[in-house]
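In response to the reviewer comment on reproducibility (Comment 2.3), we provide here a single inverse folding case reported in full, input and output, so that an independent group could reproduce the run without further information from us. The structure tokens appear first.
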């Protein structure tokens, strides 16, 4: 997988199941809807279909699962839910925003985000969940997660298909180990 080039423009085809909606820089913080991705250069957000219960079940199941794991290990785990993941340009302005469906912090006392969004470059969530109900994360979004340094991306394709789901998407959970976490895992496999 190649690193997401910050200068490469995103095409509508990169986000199947989404519609491009113009949201100007000065209005992005006021936008109250959900989107998959926003780019400051084009001032375009990729907005998915309205959220359905089929989309929300996997995120809630992950939150319940992490509660059980937290009880078993005897230390807290935080699931934050849908959140903005912000990448800033060299001047500190918001350059790109993705909205994850669920985020998990295995060590919330140490790693919890400081502000209303999760800033790329700060402590990132240990796991990000994307629900591919009507979109296709692997088309382009996974590229950004990897280049931004996220350790793990879980992609859930619900059993119930939406009309805009890309053909050939099979229901189930796929876990992608990304970036540094991938290198660590491969290094530990070689040493055994």
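Designed residues, in position order:
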């Amino acid at each position: 997988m190649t690193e997401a080039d910050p200068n490469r423009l995103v095409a509508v085809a990169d986000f199947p199941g989404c519609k491009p909606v113009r949201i100007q820089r000065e209005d992005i913080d006021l936008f109250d809807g959900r989107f998959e991705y926003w780019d400051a250069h084009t001032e375009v957000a990729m907005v998915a279909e309205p959220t359905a219960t089929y989309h929300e079940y996997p995120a809630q199941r992950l939150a319940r699962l992490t509660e059980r794991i937290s009880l078993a290990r005897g230390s807290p785990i935080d699931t934050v839910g849908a959140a903005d993941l912000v990448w800033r340009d060299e001047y500190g302005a918001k350059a790109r925003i993705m909205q994850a469906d669920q985020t998990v912090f295995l060590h919330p006392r140490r790693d919890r985000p400081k502000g209303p969004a999760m800033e790329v470059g700060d402590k990132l969530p240990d796991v990000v969940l994307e629900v591919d109900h009507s979109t296709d994360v692997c088309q382009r979004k996974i590229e950004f997660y990897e280049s931004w340094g996220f350790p793990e991306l879980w992609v859930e394709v619900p059993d119930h298909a939406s009309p805009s789901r890309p053909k050939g998407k099979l229901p189930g959970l796929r876990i992608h180990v990304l970036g540094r976490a991938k290198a660590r895992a491969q290094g530990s496999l070689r040493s055994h």
